[in-house]
Write a structure and sequence with these properties.
The chain is an alpha/beta fold. It has eight helices and nine strands. It is globular. The termini are far apart. The relative contact order is 0.16.
Length: 243
């Protein structure tokens, strides 16, 4: 299996079929043997059923996983990564914020030995932002960036920890996510820290990106859970380093 594509989904019955078709077209269009793994984080709609019923071309494997109860995006991505078998593993947010073709650059970077993990970044000078975030989300993003760099010591060369478009060596992804404990949105930060502690190389590549206004991240509902997760990550990582 060349590439495993993990798509975390929560209440995405209107989008998930389009996501799967785009992922399948990317695989077949680039002659990649691949699998698409949709992980439904206990949606109340029929996301998992729509995913299962979406036709894919011969040669593309489709797996739809649903678990209960609702746990968060980190749990969904972790579930998908641990079910993967590809030499490369990527995850992409539902909604096609980044076209799948952008993943080729990340795959080539890993293949050519530049890195073990290639993260899409919206902040690089060559990135093409087709629809920007609303002003209040940009302000919160800047505050979040300050916190993770100054408190958690995220490597300074990484410009965008939260872009939902990342590519890994398959065995590296499965190793890191098997150790991860973060169920919510801050799982990206934990994976970066675990990769740094294991001396895995992380580089970024520019992406074409448009903001999905139908996001599952609500700045009015989730600030305290995000802060709690960051504190938990810091505590867990410090305990592991001491042990």
């Amino acid at each position: 299996m060349d590439l495993s594509i993990v798509i975390p989904a929560y209440e995405e019955s209107r989008k998930i079929s389009r996501d799967i078709r785009a992922a399948a077209a990317f695989l077949t269009g680039n002659s990649l043997e691949g699998e698409i793994i949709v992980v439904d984080d206990c949606s109340s709609d029929n996301t998992a059923a729509v995913a299962r019923e979406t036709p894919v071309p011969n040669g593309v494997k489709l797996l739809s996983i649903r678990y209960e109860p609702h746990r968060g995006k980190g749990a969904a991505v972790r579930t998908g990564v641990l079910a993967s078998t590809g030499d490369y593993v990527m995850f992409a947010d539902s909604g096609l914020c980044v076209p799948y073709g952008n993943a080729l650059q990340g795959i080539y970077m890993i293949r050519d030995g530049q890195c073990d993990i290639a993260n899409g970044s919206r902040k690089m000078i060559d990135s093409d932002i087709q629809q920007a975030q609303p002003l209040h989300r940009r302000a919160c993003s800047r505050l979040f960036k300050w916190v993770v760099y100054h408190i958690l010591n995220i490597p300074r060369h990484l410009t965008d920890t939260q872009c939902g478009f990342k590519v890994y060596k398959g065995h590296v992804a499965r190793e890191l996510y098997a150790c991860a404990v973060t169920d919510g949105f801050m799982f990206d930060v934990e994976i970066i820290l675990r990769a740094r502690d294991r001396d895995y190389r992380i580089e970024e590549f520019p992406v074409e990106w448009k903001c999905d206004l139908d996001s599952r991240l609500s700045l009015t509902r989730t600030p305290w859970p995000l802060i709690s997760e960051l504190r938990m990550i810091r505590k867990t990582m410090n305990q592991e380093r001491r042990s």
